[in-house]
Amino acid sequence: MNQERILHELRQGASAWNQWRKKGAPATINLDGIELTAMDLSHYDLSKVSLRNATITHCVFKQADLIWANCDSSQLQHNDFSQAKLIATNLTRCDLSYSQLRLANLLTANTTNATLEHIDFRGQDISGLMLRDVSLAGSNLEGQQLARVDLTNTDLTGANLRGADLSGALLVGACLQDCDLQDANLTGAQCKSVNLAGVSLRGMDLNKVDFTNADLSNCDLREANLAKAKLINTQLSGAKLWNANMANWVINNIRCTHSFWDKSAKQKTTYRPHEFERIFAEAITIELRYPYRLADHELATLPIFIEHLAAVHWGTILRLKSISDVAGGALVKFVVEEVGSHNPTELKNQLQAEAERIQLAQLMLRNNTQLHFQLKEKVAAIREEFWPRLLELAVDHEHEQVRNLTILFMDLKGFSKWSDGELSEKLSLFRGLVKPILKKFAAGHPNMEGDSLRVTFKNATAGLSCACMIRNVLRAAGFELRIGVELGEVLVVHNEVTDIPDLEGVAVSMAARMEAAAEPGEVLVSQRVRHYAERSELFEFTPRRVPLKKSIGAIAQGEYIECFAVEAIKNLQEAIS
Predict the structure, then answer these.
(1) Is 401 helix (H, G, I), strand (E, B) or coil?
(2) pLDDT of residue 386
(3) Per-position b or e across 133-161, b if 16+ CB within 10 A of its CB
(4) Spans of all domains in the chain
(5) If you average pLDDT over residues 156-174, what whole number do you get?
(6) Strand pairing of 401-412 and 452-457?
């Protein structure tokens, strides 16, 4: 059907046009390039009409009235709607991409499932539009007031959202890849399953933002406030996290193969499965509520309770955190200090379920007077008989368990040049000076052969404090030494020759490599150690690039590794007292 016939019907008025559409008009109508300047199209049925690719001389819909018009599924790309009245217009599934909407009135227009790509919305109030499931890819939304607007599943790929107010907005499932969010406000936004891959959120306030199932891979989060943010099942690989505030953030089942913690985002830190979560998540807490109060037999069996939980999850270490009165009873909290090789999220669920199962057995004793009395009499015997056996069992099963430890390697320089006369005297002095320092910092798995020393620590701060103190004390006594420190997963194995636990793993080898690469009097540490200890404010880290004297893994002999030389900037004796 030719356009003249269609235009003739169009000019008969809304009622006649709509009747014609119902009776004799074709299902789809092509009016591409038709000029409808200042025409009143209110209440017209323009569904499935094609009005695309208007030219400058053919300004479709300019100043036109489309009040209550039905444009469902219409093709309206590349048109000029400047000053048009689109009040209550049905734009469902309509494609308005690349159109001009300057000063257009969109009050209560229905844009459900519409395509609004590459449109300049500056100066427009679109907060009242139906933007859920809408495509706004490439559009200019600079400065838009979108607070608490539902943007669920909205495609905002490449959109300009500079200075936009998205506080409290529903961004669930939205795609913001390649967006410009500079100076935007995301406070309190719901960002579950949102795609922010590669987006810069640097310096933004993301306090309490829910990023559950979100994609934050390669996201720039430097100096961002992530306090109390939820990162559950979140993809974080490649994220830049320098100086980010992570206080009280919640991370469960995080997926992160590597990240960047330095200011310039050049130094890559890699992680094994679940390692990021084990290092940076808040400690796992198990809570049990007891009705009324904690009975004597329940209090007496709490130590056995804790040991049981650790025994059924080898490699874990738990402690009693607190017992407090709450409304209607008591609240007991256990904290997991070491998760071993377990997935932290799965471990928490398993520990909570097992704790509740054992608690149920405890509570049953309240109604069993005879058994309660017998238990009360036997508590002392249980401690003497069961407790030592359980500890013995724990030691037996410690072998071949993976632990996350800080490893320190130290070597004295010039040992081979000592004469026979001074060798014994110097080694005796060396050991006498080192022993109380190791005890002070609770060093574990000690191994001292001749002039070398290898020990472990439960955290990086203790390891670095010990390293700096040993270096300072031994240098004052005239010794020259080198120290290397690494943090990572360590396998505790049984040494059949010495019949005592020994250590294996890449972290152990890397600590030895850094010790060998250190200059005399230098303490060299990895990026992991630096990050985990830098918030203590006890140390100063200087970047170093050193060649390996021996291959390790995929790093060949002679290749350079990035590490840090450490100096204590406070009096360690005062800082830890």
Answers:
(1) strand
(2) 61
(3) bbbbbbbbbbbbebbebbbbbbbbbbbbb
(4) 1-114, 286-396, 401-576
(5) 94
(6) antiparallel
- Of 204, 147, 152, 206, residue with least CA distance to 174: 152
**pLDDT band (50, 70, 90) for residue 399:** very low
- Dist CA 95 CA 71 (whole Å): 10
Which pLDDT score, from 0 to 100, does residue 237 have? 95
How far apart are the two ends of the chain, measured CA to CA in Å?
92
CA distance 149 to 141: 13
**Integer angstrom CA distances of residue 378 from 373, 375, 384:** 9, 5, 10
Q: Which fold has domain 401-576?
A: Alpha-Beta Plaits (3.30.70)
- In angstroms and rounded to an integer, the radius of gyration of the C-alpha atoms of the chain is 34
Q: CA–CA separation, 406 vs 524, rounded Å? A: 13
Bridge partner residues of 483 (DSSP)? 410, 523
- In terms of Cα–Cα distance, which of 492, 493, 490 is closest to 505? 490
The pLDDT tens digits of the residues spanning 36-63 come to: 666 677 777 777 777 665 432 333 455 5
Of 208, 214, 163, nearest to 189 by C-alpha is: 208
Domain 1-114 has CATH 2.160.20.80: yes
- Looking at residues 281-310, what average pLDDT do you find? 85
DSSP 371: H
How far apart are alpha carbons 135 and 144 in whole angstroms?
16
Residues 6 or more apart whose CB falls under 8 angstroms from that of 574 comprise none
**Confidence at residue 388, expressed as pLDDT on a 0 to 100 scale:** 54
**pLDDT bracket for residue 158 (50, 70, 90):** very high
Q: Yes or no: say if 127 and 146 are a contact pair by the CB < 8 Å rule.
A: yes
- Predicted confidence at residue 55, as pLDDT, reads 32
Which is more confidently placed, 485 or 96? Answer: 485
447 phi, psi to nearest 5 deg: -145, 110
Alpha helices in 397-459 (DSSP H): 420-440
CB 481 within 8 A of CB 411: yes
Greatest pairwise CA separation for the chain in angstroms: 118
Could you check whether 1-114 and 401-576 share the same CATH topology? no
Q: What is the three-class DSSP state of 533?
A: helix
Question: Under a CB-based contact definition with an 8 Å cutoff, are residues 212 and 194 in contact?
Answer: no
State the pTM of this model: 0.54
Q: Residue with structure tokens 């890849």?
A: 177
Say which range, 138-152, 227-241, 372-386, 501-515, has the weakest mean pLDDT: 372-386
State how far the Cα of 548 lies from the Cα of 405, in Å rounded to an integer.
Answer: 22
pLDDT per residue as tens digits for the range 536-560: 578 889 999 999 888 887 788 889 9
